[in-house]
């Protein structure tokens, strides 16, 4: 049956403004996903086809999942995040069924952003997949993307991978993942915005975030989140003793930065 998968349908509240940096990704998503959904008639008037997804790639922790969720929030759409474990099943034929069920759910909940994390694991080059009997799954994925048997109207497809070179080239054809965007690690300005977003609604002193980001070389968004988490935990412990919420200070952030290892450098070292 179509309703036995474990993925959750969310209604995200976050918007693009909750995502620091990522300007190019936001622009691509606006042009390819959001505008066609909001102005289908304009696209039709110029004979421009609607459809196809965006494949995002780049080091982990740089906001791919976050921007997918925020895309749904921007247009008040539903959101389904799909990991490989939601699909792969040891029984022959079950992975294909799981994938179909997920697409059906997204179609029923349209407008819906359907996000595939680690999509390379599903669309690995055919020779890899053939060994594990995965060709059927690739073909199923391709026909779901094409909307062969069911319309994908209002189903907005985003996917993320750390290793795009493992994707079967059939996924790159028009109407499928015909746009690829490289999600870079945040630059100085983006890091500041990310910290602002992460510190929003928390008790803080006047902070010099630029000084913090200067020390956060090669940090991903997720690394910055770890920094804020550490600062918050320490402050919470101090506050517990005093019995009132002490504001986060500059030194809390600086100390926390020193405790976190930057994660993006490693990715650039191996991704060749
Ligand atoms: P992975 O490849 O590991 O799935 P990802 O690129 O999908 O990584 P996210 O899961 O989106 O990364 O990011 C992890 C967390 O880091 C987010 O939930 C968020 O708290 C923080 N973060 C990352 N990038 C940003 C950003 N640009 N703005 C604000 N927060 C960010």
From TrEMBL:
Family the UniProt entry places it in: Belongs to the AAA ATPase family.
Keyword Amino-acid biosynthesis attributed: no
Alphabetized GO MF terms: ATP binding
Record key words, sorted: ATP-binding, Nucleotide-binding
Keyword ATP-binding: yes
Name this polypeptide is given: ATP-binding protein
Domain of life from the UniProt record: Bacteria
Portion of the full sequence shown: 153 to 424 of 447
Domain called AAA+ ATPase: residue spans: 50-187
């Amino acid at each position: 049956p179509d309703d036995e998968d474990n993925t959750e349908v969310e209604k995200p509240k976050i918007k693009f403004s909750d995502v620091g940096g990522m300007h190019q990704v936001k622009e691509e998503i606006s042009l390819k996903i959001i505008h066609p959904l909001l102005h289908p008639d304009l696209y039709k008037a110029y004979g421009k086809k609607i459809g196809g997804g965006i494949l995002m790639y780049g080091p982990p922790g740089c906001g791919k999942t976050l921007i997918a969720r925020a895309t749904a929030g921007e247009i008040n759409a539903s959101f389904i995040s799909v990991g490989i474990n939601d699909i792969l099943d040891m029984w022959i034929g079950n992975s294909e069924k799981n994938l179909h069920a997920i697409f059906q759910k997204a179609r029923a909940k349209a407008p819906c952003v359907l996000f595939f994390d680690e999509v390379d694991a599903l669309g690995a080059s055919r020779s890899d997949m053939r060994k594990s009997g995965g060709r059927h799954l690739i073909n199923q994925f391709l026909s779901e993307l094409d909307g062969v048997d069911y319309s994908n109207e209002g189903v907005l497809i985003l996917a993320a991978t750390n290793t795009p070179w493992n994707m079967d080239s059939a996924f790159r054809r028009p109407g499928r993942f015909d746009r690829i965007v490289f999600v870079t690690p945040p630059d100085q300005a983006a890091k500041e915005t990310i910290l602002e977003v992460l510190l929003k609604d928390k008790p803080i002193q006047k902070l010099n975030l630029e000084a913090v980001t200067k020390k956060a070389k090669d940090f991903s968004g997720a690394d910055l989140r770890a920094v804020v988490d550490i600062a918050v935990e320490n402050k919470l412990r101090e506050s517990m003793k005093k019995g009132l919420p002490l504001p986060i200070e500059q030194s809390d952030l600086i100390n926390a930065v020193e405790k976190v290892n930057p994660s993006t450098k490693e990715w650039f070292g191996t991704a060749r």
